[in-house]
Structures are given as structure tokens and as C-alpha cells.
Design a protein that fits this description.
The complex is a heterodimer of chains A (613) and B (621). With 613 residues, chain A is α/β, with parallel strands linked by helices. Helices cover 62% and strands 9% of the residues of chain A. Chain A has 2 domains: 32-349, ABC transporter transmembrane region fold (Up-down Bundle); 360-612, Rossmann fold (3-Layer(aba) Sandwich). In chain B, 62% of the residues lie in helices and 11% in strands. Chain B contains 22 helices and 12 strands. Residues 1-19 and 608-621 of chain B have low confidence and may be disordered. The chains are: A alpha/beta (613), B alpha/beta (621).
Chain lengths: 613, 621
């Protein structure tokens, strides 16, 4: 594989996702100025007190100019005065210089601290907004970008911006100001020589746009490579067990090394443009100096110039060159920063398709929920329909089991019910209200999904269970565990509820993780409970016990269970059989199982065959 | 290991005291020395570039003086000048500028190259550690933290390389200037050089104030990264429980802490930079003051004062560039220490040099003797577990949730080593096997399938070689067929070449399990460990998988952790675990007959629905 530029590696997602717009916005379409404007809009702190900071920046740069001029004057006119040093002049100049040093230092201290404060505050806001937005994105979009790349967007990409905001941004404005002032002063001395200087710098100024475009591309690649590198590193760390059991360390390391090299190569490449554009400034300065002297001499022949003017002009050129160099440098740094900024803003620009109606949304009344699917079809972007024309009514308080083969679309039903996705056609209604019109807070309060692979946070069991109800006390948790018949299990844990579950809960077995997830859902006290094969990894005896406990607890709630163990289906009020995206049978277990040749009868037969073996 | 440890880092907590303050500067130089030793060529090139730049900066000033004396003055005096002189002036200035540009390009390009290379070396070294450190280490170090090590700490550690060549290159400039200063006037030179102790004092103050903040900032960066990674990883739970707000608050708390530390560190930086800029200027003022006195007292002449003052302004530039270098030290040292902690972490799994005798087509003999393991002391997860599986035989491990089955499979696949007892494969202790040997002869299918962001083919083969040959597509399809995954894989848009996305998110749980199963089967392992590997698969599909395993061509030794009777029925023997001990062993039928607790466990589904006659019993038995 080449170590250079690869196609957008962080949009690993599927081409289909990119086509249909579910992918994360890379932000790369945004022009630099647009990025800055949007960035400041997102982090208004960046504008705070900018006027005073600018005044301080000007004071600091004025002081920087005064000091060498004063020292020069002291040497020339104080020490070199005819008839020995002019003491009082030296003293006065010394006082002025000391004042100028104090002014510069003070002003630059205040300016830099202020810049640190505003930019750090602004960037904290940016990080937090981006983080929040990631959670507001639909599940499908979240999955189009790898976790490592997402993390890089709220960590490393933001860090890139910070350097620029403190040591770039505002100083660029000051540099441009200095260049303008130097130009005016030069023009007053001699418009012809001023023109010479500008002509010498013309190639640099004219090529800036080209360099900016190149840099923008190059740093865009650098940031993307950083994202892929972090993804390549995080993946095998998360899957450390598989890497070890299959002894694929070498293969994995090769993949990581490739990503590391990709980042290195991209950085080196971007650096090339930076360096060339910067050195162009030095060449221009040489041309300007040469031009000033040669043209100055020629103008002298025409009696349009004195030697004093030429020498003064040579000094003025340095006042012009300094800020130009500074400005060029800042512009190149800016492209690095903007490339990072774009990626963070890209998150915020990605539409959260599942818009939360917020305050305008409806609130579901407490109490069992009535569920209705009206002509619901669903297709993943760019894919075929997974569900087709589903019409389904579940009366409040009923216990329904959805069964079907893998890939039949039964898990999609769970995702639509809990609004992890919105239907492509039709509507899902809870208590007669379209889920899209229900305020997210109310929806999450009333509807709880327990997925098959319950994710746990690296914390205690208590903390993980409290995720379902933040106000739950330890006693509440113990009581819930008792109701679900999990007390015995809790007693076997080394530290009981205080047991640390490890990253992703991996200190527990898959079955135990499911138990914690169930406890969490129970504490959340939902009105509609959706279980997606939530007890598939616990032992049969415990599963049956939990099943019976849930049955008791479900009185007064509606429950939808996605099941492949038909024991669950047997005890449900009603079974809905999904096959190839359509509902093919519904009714109580006892009825369906006797429908000869039906899908359900088939599923049941193989289930029984397994059990009876 | 690529990053040698030059100095022994003190405990990070000691940053306040005097010894470690001096240590920061020393350690900073140590870090730089590591880089110079590692990349001497690139360093030399960038330093030469920097020296060239320094020399030509001086040459530039000389050119102006020369052209004043030889071109401007005669031209304005005489009213004429030869064209050749004008051409010479032009050539000198442009020539100097071009050479200087070469110096700049060399300095910055090679400095950048050196920095990026050092970053890459460190990243390779830490990730290599991630891949070799044992599972227990991983449990204590969250993914987000490891990402931060590989990213932010690496960047911090090698931050000083960018200003390094400039600082080294200008040292030459500085040395020349200092020699000239002494030549001009000894006393004034000494006065001027007081700037150096002042710079050192300023630097020490900076290190002292900044180091603890930088340490905290790097820790916080890791914590911010940790929360982000974990929270995005658990995005579905966050969403389904509507905890976006709480998660954002958790993240925001750390981000705000980082922000505050950065602002405090920024304030110190904001004071340090102007101080460094001001010190040489103040030095010039002092030299001027004392110079005037000495001139008046007749000890020296005005020309000497002018020279020393002028040289001191020249020196201010190297001082600032050295200051930039030193300014990077606190962060660099912190980053380097954090990397060293990872690189020095102990606990790499020891491997032996033995291999399992190669007997293709036959199963391995597995012997487990007196096994004990505990994660927390006094809380044994397994106690005195012993059993033997003869080649080609199948043993089912059956037990309630949390009875120690997962721990047993972790031991069988050597994710952890036992506290007591041993596991042998064909008579060889797993700990004596060469690295990669266990994986060559055995396959494991974990409870929760983990797929890589790769194609179906890549996920199944993981680039394995069987008998020295890479796996063919036929092998892959055969394994997929046995795992009942051929159907849905064939229906994927690009078949075997379909990218599965991170952790295979585009597939359902059952589909992921079957790919994971195919990954084990394709290797034709002599020992296959299935840890409840079909829990997410439909009964019908599972039945077909089991049939394929039972009637498969090879005589694999099979250890299955299972709950379902159909799976258990495959086994020649059942090992019944309770609370980490084997309570009974025998055939399924024997255990059903003599062990009530076993019967309760595996017959649970049939005993469902107290009251109504359970349908499954009615139809099934």
C-alpha cells in the first residue's frame, strides 16, 4: 500500500452512506473565511474583548519598533556625539527605551493572557457543542465514522486551532496593519522605491492564494490521516482479546504502522508547502534590497534622491519585511488550524436527522403506551427495503413478542419503536402521536430499549444502573434486583454493587452485562419496554426466572420483545411473526403454532427439536 | 524499543521541589538527545541549514554596509557608477537571499522531518506495547487514554524538535558575537553577558510554574479523550436512555478543567515570552549606561560601547530562539514521561519456545489440571478445575451465569495465566508454547463477536496461512458455509470484498457471530473453543451450524460453553461448573439423571409457564 494520500479513510462507512448523505460532514467544502466566521459564531467567546486585545497588540508591536529605533539613536547621537558622549541625551533615551520595554512587555503579557483565555474558552465551547452533537446524530450517521476518528475531532483537531488563535489570528491583523503603515511611510520617502519594494514582493503576494489552496488541501489530508491513525490504534485496543487469541499482532501492527506512516507522510508533505512559501518571503526581501539600492542610485543620478533617503529606505524595508514574513507564517499556520476547525465544525454541520421537537414536542402521559405502526417501510440509505408496509396495533398494556429469522427485519422494529431511526415511509405512533412529534425527553422517559449487547461504562455497577434513574438510591437498586430475582447473583460479586465492571463492562461476562442492562432498564421505570434479545447470554434457568419476574413487572406497561428463543414468545399475549420485512402471522402462540406449514410453526419445530435433543 | 530512556523520571507528583525543577531542564535535554541519537542525519542537515541561515543573516547586514561604502557613497559623490557595480550589488543581495532561502528550507524541512519521524517512532513503539501488554493491563488503561498517549503525549514529547535547529544554529552566531564583544571591551562584555544568568533564572521560574500545570494538562487531555471515546462507544445506550445531557455534562466538566489549566499555563507563557524578549534589551540599556560612564572616565572609547551594544542586540535573537526551545521543555518532559510509563510497563506475557507436534486432521489432547484463578484476591473465580479432553472429543462446559465459564475460556485461550495448576495441549504447557503457536493450533469464538473494519475476507482470514499457504476464497467460502454465513455474505453488495465497518456495525448480532465462527473454522484448528458462540443465532440456523460441526471433515477437539440442549447433546462429556468448581462430570444423560441442579439449569425452558401445559414439552418429547 502507498503511504501517501488515501481516499477519505475516516468515512469508512459505506459508499452508500456517503451517497445518501448519512455520512458525517467532513467540513472540507467550507472556504477558509467561511470556516472562521462559522467558528466564531459557534464560539462567541472568541469575540469577547477583542477590541482591547487588538489595542494591546498594537501597543506591543509599537513598543517593539520603538526600542531598536531608540537604541540606534542613542548609539548614533548620544554616544557618537561630536565632542564625547551626550550624557543627558543618553539618560533620556534610556528612560524612553525602558518605558518602551515595559510597555511592550506589559502589553504583550496582557494580550497573550487575554488570547489564551478567550481562545481556550471558545474552544471548550466548541468541543462541548461538537460532543453533544455527536450524540444528537442518528445512530446510522454515528456508525459511518470510526470511534477513533470521532474522538480526534473533539480532541486533536481542536488542539490545532488553539495555537493559531493565540499566536496567529489577531497578530495577522496587526501584521497587515504594520505592512500598510510601512508602505505609507515608504511612499512618503519615495513613491518610486516603494513601488520597487512592492514589485519585489508581487510574486509572493500573487502566489499566496495558490499556496493557501495547496496548504488547505495538504492540511486537510493531515487531519484526516490523524483520524484514521487514531482509529487504527483504537480498533485493536478494543479488540485486544481477539488480536491475542488469533496471534495477529504482526498483521495488526502492520495496519497501525501504515496509518502512522500515512500521518507522517501527510505532515511532511504539508510542511513542504509551508517552507517554500515562507522562504519565498526571504527571496523577495533580497530582491527588494537590491532593487532599492540599484534604483536608488539611478534616481540619484536624476537628482531625485539623496544618499540619506536611500539608507533610510533600506531600514524601512526591514520594517516592511518583518510583518510580511510574520503574516505569511500565520497564514500557513492558519491552514493547519482551519483544517482542524473544519472537521469539528463538520460535525455540527451534519444534520441531526432525528430532530427533537424539543419544547414544542408533545409529552406522553404516564401509563401504558398504545403502539401503532401505520404503513411503515424502512430501507437503509441506498439499500433495499428491510421492512415493508407494516401495520400493527399493540394495545396499551399488552405483551407482544416479535419473532422471525435473522435478517427478517425484527430488530428494525425495535429501532423504529425507540426512534433510533425514523421510517422511510409511514409513521410510528405512540398513544396516537407520531414519534417524530414527541419531545425527546418524554420519549426517552417513557420508552426504554434493552439491546442485546448492553454497553456498560467503566464504573461501578451502581453507577451503571443509575444511568436508568439518576435519583435511584442503593436501596432502590437492591429492591429492583430483588424484584428481578438478581439478588443471588449480586451476592456472588466481589464488591456487590460497588464492583467495577471494567471498560465496556468487560470484567463481567456477556450474561452479567445483560443483567446490569436489565436492572438499569427496570429502574428507568418505562411505560413501553422494548427488549431486543436482552437475555440471550444468560443461562436458561436465570433467563426463565427473569422472564417470569419481568412478566409481573410488566403489568401496567406495554412490552415488545424481540426474541429468537421461543420460550419468550410462548408467554407473550401475542406473537408477531416477521418474514422478509413483512408481518406474516400474528396471534397468540397456541394458535400460531398449529397453523400447519406456517413460518412460526417451522421456527417452533426447530426450537423444540433443539430443546428436546 | 525505539525510545531509550535517558533519565529516570521522578514521580510526577514531585514537580514542585527544587531537585525536580532542575531535572526538568536536564530531562528536556535528555529527550532532545534521544532524538538526535535516533535521527542524526536529519538533525545535522537541519542544523547546517540553520547555520547557513545565521551566517547569511549576518552577511545581509554586511552587504548593506559594503554597498553603502562601495556603491552608494561613490555614486552620490561622483555622480556616476559602473554598470558592473550595480550588477554586482544586485547579484550580492539576490545571491545572499537565495542562499538564505536554501538555509531556511533546509532548516525547517529537516526539522519537520525529524519531528515527524520521531513522532512516528514513538507511535510505533507505544502501539507495539499496546499489542504485547497483557489483558489485565488493558483493563486498567481505557482506550481513550491510550489514544491520548499515541497522539497528544507524542506530540508534546517531540515539540522541542521544531525550534531545536534554530537554537543550535544560532549558538554559532552567538559564540562569534560573544568573542567579538570580549575583543571590544572586557568589562562591558561581562556586563552584557549578565543577560545569560537572567535568562536562566527566568527559565527556571518558568519551568517551576509551568511544569505542574503541563503535567495536569496532559492528564486532562487523556481524560477528555477517555470520556469521548467511551461515550461515543456507548452512543446507543446514551441515546436510548436519553442521557445525552448528562454525558455532555460529564464531558464538559473535564473540558472546563482542561480549559482552566490551559488558561493558567497560558498566563505563565504570556509572561515568559516578553521577559525573554526584554532581557537582552535591558542588557543593552545597562551596557549603554555603564559604557557612558567608562567613556567619560576614559577607560574605553565610544566605538567599543557601540560594538558591544550592537552585538548584544544580535545575541538577543539566539537567546529568544533558545527560549522557545526551553519553553517547550515542561510539556515535552511530561509527554515523554507519560510515554515512558507505557513503554516500561511490565507484564508482557512470557512465551516459551516449544511447539505442538503437527498431526494434521487430528484433534489435540487438552488436559486441565488443578486450575485456580482469581481476579481479586480472596475471591477465586475458579478453584481446582481439572478435566481432560481426548483428541477429537467434545466437552461441553455448562454452568449458571457467573459460574466461571468465561474465566475458563480466557484461561484456555491464554488471555490470562492461572494462579495455580496448568493447561496442556498435547502434553505441552500453554506457557511453554512459542508466541503464536497456540493460535496456530487452536481457534476460539468469543461470546461477543469482534469484527475489524475490514472486508469479510479480511475478517475471516486475518491473513492467516495454513500449512504455509495463504487461504483461498474457496477456503473462506467453505468456512462461511459451515458457519451458515455463506447465504448472507453472498447477498452483500460486494460479497467477500464488502467492507464491514468498524466492529461490523453493518451486520446484525447473529451475523457477526457467524463471521466470527467462520474465522475460527477456516483455520481448521485442532482445538476449537466456542464460548456461547451462537447465542444470537436463530434456532434453525444454530441447528445447521451444529450439524456442520458434528459432521465436519476434521477431528477437531471441541470445547463448547453452552446452555442449549442441542449444543450440549453434541458433547461426549459435560463438565458442570458451579461457583468456580466442577461439581459433576459425565454425559448429558447421566448428569440429567443424577444432578437436580443440572437438570434445573438445562431444562429451564421446558419448565416454563407454570400452570398451562408447556407447548414445547407436549410437542417436543
Amino acid at each position: 500500500m502507498s503511504t501517501t494520500v488515501k481516499a477519505p479513510a475516516d468515512a469508512t462507512g459505506t459508499a452508500a452512506a456517503a451517497r445518501s448523505g448519512t455520512a458525517m460532514d467532513s467540513g472540507e467544502e467550507m472556504a477558509a473565511l467561511q470556516t472562521l466566521r462559522r467558528g466564531v459564531q459557534i464560539s462567541p467567546e472568541l469575540r469577547e474583548g477583542i477590541g482591547w486585545t487588538l489595542v494591546l497588540a498594537v501597543l506591543a508591536s509599537v513598543g517593539q519598533v520603538i526600542v531598536p529605533v531608540v537604541v540606534q539613536q542613542t548609539l548614533d547621537r548620544g554616544l557618537g556625539a561630536d565632542g564625547g558622549p551626550d550624557v543627558s541625551f543618553v539618560v533620556w533615551m534610556g528612560v524612553i527605551a525602558a518605558a518602551a520595554i515595559a510597555l511592550t512587555s506589559g502589553a504583550s503579557y496582557l494580550m497573550t493572557s487575554r488570547l489564551f483565555r478567550t481562545s481556550e474558552r471558545g474552544l471548550a465551547t466548541l468541543r462541548i457543542k461538537a460532543f453533544r452533537h455527536v450524540h444528537d446524530l442518528p445512530l446510522l450517521t454515528q456508525n459511518t465514522e470510526r470511534r477513533g476518528a470521532l474522538v480526534s475531532r473533539v480532541t486533536s483537531d481542536v488542539d490545532q486551532v488553539s495555537q493559531f488563535l493565540v499566536f496567529g489570528g489577531l497578530l495577522f491583523v496587526v501584521s497587515v496593519g504594520q505592512v500598510l503603515i510601512a508602505t505609507i511611510v515608504m511612499a512618503i520617502y519615495s513613491w518610486q522605491l516603494a513601488l520597487v519594494v512592492w514589485i519585489a514582493f508581487a510574486p509572493l503576494f500573487l502566489s499566496i492564494r495558490w499556496f493557501q489552496r495547496k496548504l488547505s488541501e495538504a492540511y486537510g489530508v493531515v487531519r484526516r490521516q490523524m483520524g484514521s491513525m487514531l482509529s487504527a490504534i483504537s480498533e485493536p485496543v478494543v479488540g485486544a482479546a481477539v488480536v491475542r487469541s488469533y496471534a495477529v499482532e504482526a498483521r495488526t501492527q502492520a495496519r497501525i504502522d501504515e496509518a502512522i506512516d500515512g500521518f507522517r507522510a501527510a505532515s511532511t508533505r504539508a510542511q513542504r508547502f509551508t517552507v517554500v512559501s515562507f522562504s519565498l518571503g526571504g527571496i523577495s526581501a533580497g530582491l527588494a534590497n537590491a532593487g532599492v539600492i540599484v534604483i536608488g542610485v539611478l534616481l540619484g543620478f536624476a537628482d531625485q534622491m539623496t544618499i540619506g533617503t536611500v539608507l533610510a529606505f533600506a531600514f524601512l524595508v526591514t520594517l516592511f519585511v518583518g510583518p510580511v514574513q510574520m503574516g505569511t507564517q500565520i497564514l500557513t499556520d492558519a491552514q493547519n488550524a482551519i483544517a482542524g476547525w473544519r472537521r469539528v465544525i463538520g460535525i455540527l454541520e451534519t444534520p441531526a436527522d432525528l430532530v427533537d421537537p424539543g419544547e414544542d414536542g408533545e409529552t406522553l402521559p404516564r401509563g401504558p403506551v398504545d403502539v401503532r405502526f401505520e404503513g411503515v417501510s424502512f430501507a437503509y440509505p441506498g439499500g433495499p427495503f428491510v421492512l415493508r408496509d407494516i401495520d400493527l396495533d399493540i394495545a396499551a398494556g399488552r405483551r407482544v413478542a416479535v419473532v422471525g429469522e435473522t435478517g427478517s427485519g425484527k430488530s428494525t422494529v425495535a429501532k423504529l419503536l425507540t426512534r433510533l431511526m425514523d421510517p422511510t415511509e409511514g409513521a410510528v405512533l405512540l398513544d396516537g402521536v407520531d414519534v417524530r412529534r414527541i419531545a425527546a425527553r418524554s420519549l426517552r422517559r417513557s420508552v426504554v430499549l434493552v439491546p442485546q449487547e448492553g454497553f456498560l461504562f467503566d464504573d461501578s455497577i451502581t453507577a451503571n444502573v443509575r444511568y436508568g434513574d439518576l435519583d435511584a438510591t442503593e436501596a432502590d437498586i437492591l429492591a429492583s434486583a430483588d424484584e428481578l430475582g438478581l439478588s443471588d447473583w449480586l451476592a456472588t460479586l466481589p464488591a456487590g454493587l460497588a464492583t467495577q465492571v471494567g471498560q465496556r463492562g468487560e470484567s463481567l461476562s456477556a450474561g452479567e452485562r445483560q443483567l446490569v442492562a436489565l436492572l438499569r432498564a427496570h429502574l428507568a421505570d418505562p411505560d413501553l419496554l422494548v427488549l431486543d434479545e436482552a437475555t440471550s447470554a444468560v443461562d436458561p434457568a436465570l433467563e426463565m426466572r427473569i422472564g417470569r419476574a419481568l412478566e409481573r413487572l410488566m403489568s401496567g406497561r406495554t412490552s415488545v420483545t424481540i426474541a429468537h428463543r421461543l420460550s419468550t414468545a410462548e408467554s407473550a399475549d401475542e406473537v408477531v411473526v416477521v418474514d422478509r420485512g413483512r408481518i406474516v402471522q400474528r396471534g397468540p402462540h397456541a394458535e400460531l403454532v398449529h397453523q400447519e406449514g406456517s413460518v412460526y410453526a417451522g421456527l417452533h419445530a426447530s426450537w423444540v427439536a433443539q430443546q428436546g435433543a | 524499543m525505539t525510545v531509550e530512556q535517558e533519565t529516570h523520571p521522578d514521580e510526577p507528583g514531585l514537580d514542585g521541589d527544587g531537585a525536580s525543577r532542575a531535572a526538568t531542564t536536564r530531562e528536556g535535554f535528555g529527550v532532545i538527545w534521544v532524538a538526535i541519537k535516533r535521527e542524526p542525519g536529519v538533525f545535522a542537515l537541519s542544523t547546517v541549514g540553520s547555520m547557513l541561515f545565521g551566517l547569511l543573516t549576518v552577511a545581509d547586514a554586511w552587504a548593506l554596509g559594503w554597498s553603502t561604502d562601495h556603491v552608494l557613497t561613490p555614486a552620490f559623490r561622483d555622480g556616476e557608477i559602473g554598470t558592473s557595480m550595480l550588477v554586482a550589488v544586485f547579484a550580492i543581495f539576490v545571491g545572499i537571499a537565495l542562499l538564505r532561502a536554501v538555509g531556511i528550507v533546509a532548516r525547517r524541512l529537516f526539522a519537520g522531518m525529524m519531528q515527524y519521524r520521531m513522532q512516528a517512532h514513538s507511535r510505533r513503539a507505544v502501539t507495539r506495547q499496546y499489542l504485547t501488554l497483557p489483558m489485565e493491563w488493558h483493563q486498567r488503561h481505557p482506550t481513550g487514554e491510550l489514544l491520548s498517549n499515541a497522539n497528544s503525549d507524542v506530540e508534546a514529547a517531540w515539540g522541542p524538535i521544531a525550534p531545536l535547529p534554530m537554537a543550535v544554529g544560532t549558538v554559532v552566531m552567538m559564540a562569534i558575537a560573544i568573542v567579538q564583544m570580549f575583543a571590544a571591551d572586557l568589562v562591558l562584555a561581562l556586563v552584557g553577558l549578565l543577560v545569560f544568568p537572567a535568562v536562566i533564572v527566568a527559565n527556571l521560574a518558568y519551568q517551576r510554574l509551568a511544569s505542574p500545570l503541563m503535567t495536569r494538562a496532559q492528564e486532562l487531555r487523556a481524560e477528555v479523550s477517555e470520556i469521548a471515546h467511551e461515550s461515543f462507544d456507548g452512543a446507543m445506550v446514551v441515546k436510548t436512555l436519553g442521557r445525552e445531557g448528562e454525558e455532555t455534562e460529564r464531558f464538559a466538566a473535564k473540558v472546563h478543567e482542561l480549559r482552566d489549566v490551559n488558561i493558567r499555563a497560558g498566563r505563565i507563557r504570556a509572561a515568559f515570552d516578553p521577559t525573554l524578549a526584554a532581557l537582552p534589551n535591558l542588557g543593552v540599556l545597562v551596557v549603554l549606561g555603564i559604557g557612558v560612564e567608562r567613556v567619560l572616565g576614559g577607560s574605553t572609547d565610544a566605538g567599543a560601547v557601540v560594538t558591544v551594544a550592537y552585538l548584544l542586540t544580535i545575541v538577543s535573537f539566539p537567546i529568544r530562539s533558545i527560549g522557545w526551545l526551553l519553553g517547550e521543555f515542561p510539556r515535552s518532559v511530561v509527554g515523554f514521561r507519560r510515554l515512558s510509563t507505557v513503554l516500561e510497563a511490565e507484564g508482557e506475557m512470557p512465551y516459551g519456545d516449544r511447539s505442538v507436534p503437527d498431526v494434521p486432521g487430528t484433534g489435540a489432547r487438552l488436559e486441565v489440571g488443578g486450575l485456580a484463578y482469581s481476579y481479586v484476591a480472596e475471591q477465586p473465580l475458579l478453584r481446582d478445575v481439572s478435566f481432560t479432553v481426548e483428541p477429537g472429543r467434545t466437552v461441553a462446559i455448562v454452568g449458571a451465569t457467573a459460574s466461571g465459564k468465561s474465566t475458563l475460556t480466557a484461561l484456555l485461550t491464554r488471555l490470562v495465566d492461572p494462579d495455580r495448576g496448568r493447561i496442556t495441549l498435547d502434553g505441552v504447557d500453554l506457557r511453554d508454547l512459542d508466541r503464536g503457536e497456540l493460535a496456530r493450533v487452536s481457534g476460539v469464538v468469543p461470546q461477543t463477536a469482534f469484527l475489524f473494519d475490514d472486508t469479510v475476507r479480511g475478517n475471516v482470514t486475518l491473513d492467516a496461512r495454513v500449512d504455509g499457504m495463504p487461504l483461498t476464497d474457496d477456503d473462506v467460502w467453505e468456512a462461511l458455509r459451515a458457519a451458515q454465513a455463506d447465504g448472507f455474505v453472498a447477498a452483500l453488495p460486494h460479497g467477500l470484498d464488502t467492507q464491514l465497518g468498524e466492529r461490523g456495525t453493518s451486520l446484525s448480532g447473529g451475523q457477526r457471530q457467524r463471521i466470527s465462527l467462520a474465522r475460527a473454522l477456516v483455520r481448521r484448528p485442532r482445538l476449537l473453543v466456542l464460548d456461547d458462540a451462537t447465542s444470537a443465532v436463530d434456532p434453525e440456523v444454530e441447528a445447521r451450524i451444529l450439524a456442520a460441526l458434528r459432521h465436519g471433515p476434521s477431528d477437531t477437539t471441541l470445547v463448547v460453553v453452552a446452555y442449549r440442549k442441542a449444543t450440549i447433546a453434541l458433547a461426549d462429556e459435560v463438565v458442570h461448573l458451579e461457583d468456580g468448581r466442577i461439581v459433576d462430570r459425565g454425559t448429558h444423560a447421566e448428569l440429567l439423571r443424577r444432578s437436580p441442579s443440572y437438570a434445573r439449569l438445562v431444562n429451564a425452558y421446558e419448565q416454563a409457564e407454570p400452570g398451562d401445559a408447556p407447548v414445547s414439552v407436549e410437542v417436543g418429547s
